[in-house]
Amino acid sequence: MRVADKYLNPFTDFGFKKLFGIAPNKDLLIDFLNELLRRDEGEIKDITYLSPEQLGRTSGDRKAIFDIYCENEQGEKFIVEMQKAKQNYFKDRSLYYSTFPIQSQAQKGGWDFELKSVYTVGILDFVFDEDQGSDQVFHHEVQLFDKSIQKVFYDKLTYIYLEMPKFTKTVDQLETHFDSWLYVLKNLEHLTERPAKLQERVFKKLFEQAEIANFDEAEYSEYEESLKNYRDLKNSIDTAREEGEEKGRKEEKITIAGKMKRQNIPSEIISQSTGLPREEIEKL
Fold first, then answer.
1. Which backbone phi and psi does 211 adopt, to 5 degrees?
2. Each residue of 30-43: pLDDT tens digit?
3. What is the number of structural domains in the chain?
4. Could you report the per-residue pLDDT of 222-273, keeping only the tens digit for each?
5. Does 59 have pLDDT greater than 60?
6. In a domain, 259, yes or no
7. CA–CA separation, 25 vs 134, rounded Å?
8. What is the DSSP letter of 48?
9. Least trusted range by pLDDT, from 72-76, 80-84, 130-134, 189-193
10. d(Cα 70, Cα 119) in Å, to the nearest integer?
11. Is 246 within the bounds of a domain?
């Protein structure tokens, strides 16, 4: 049975690379990066894709595999990743990955250590733990900062994270071209047609590239497998979260029951109040 959706899910490995990681669609990536960065240095005019697999300095060093790794005409480096799920030490991983494009700029001989800018962009299908309950900021831009004078200390190393679950604008609420990009990334899989508000040429091409009916058999098979892996991962995460929440609720009930028992409240009343079995309450 073929996938029922009209457009691909950009959070799948296949979907993300189909839209942004191949040379025929590099204009999509350029447009997205220009809207994301809005740099004083000017717009990116062209990019060159680099090998996503980066080896360490020695054979025993750990390697890095990026979703997308490219450079612009000035030699500035861009790591762009779609992160489907939380990882332990995710920020540490981002920092580690950024060392590869830094080290790649080393030159032999009388090099003066001047570096080109390095950007790490994370499009996240989750919310940072420390941001739970806070919907105020979803677009994080991080640079080395001097706390003593409250100024950026070094502006050639930039980490940008987009917490996509926090972006909740409807199509009628879109105000900027960047808003439109975020709306498409978050909602593409669930759309049945290109919204009338998204008439820019870049989105016309994106929707054409994302339409599953346009895939050949090899592309469709690869996407189907990628979509299955994505859904399996999300289901595992959702199940683990629900189990954790249930465990937390039960622990809270046990704590309340213990306090009530210390106040000599009858077990029957404690059971009615907390939903815990009387036998379990008697053991507290």
1. -75, 120
2. 999 999 998 877 89
3. 1
4. 999 999 988 888 777 666 666 666 666 777 778 777 877 777 777 777 776 6
5. no
6. no
7. 35
8. E
9. 130-134
10. 10
11. no
Cross-strand partners of 211 = 7
Cα separation, 128 vs 120, whole angstroms:
17
Cα-based distances in Å from 98 to 64, 157, 170, 172: 10, 8, 34, 37
Q: Is residue 198 part of a domain?
A: yes
Residues 67, 26 contacting (CB under 8 angstroms): no
Which amino acid belongs to residue 208?
E
Length of the chain: 284
**142 closest CA partner among 131, 157, 163, 123:** 157
Q: Is the separation of the CB atoms in 167 and 180 below 8 Å?
A: no
Of all helices (H) and strands (E), which one includes residue 37?
Answer: helix 26-37
Strand partners, 270: none
User: What domain range is 88 assigned to?
Assistant: 13-127+135-214
The stretch 88-104 carries a mean pLDDT of 91
* Two tokens, residue 47: 């990019």
Residue 24 dihedral angles phi and psi, to the nearest 5°:
-60, -20
Compute the distance between CA of residue 242 and CA of residue 36 in angstroms, rounded to an integer: 34
Helices 26-37 & 177-187, crossing angle to 10 degrees?
120
As given in the structure block, the two tokens for residue 207 are 């929707």
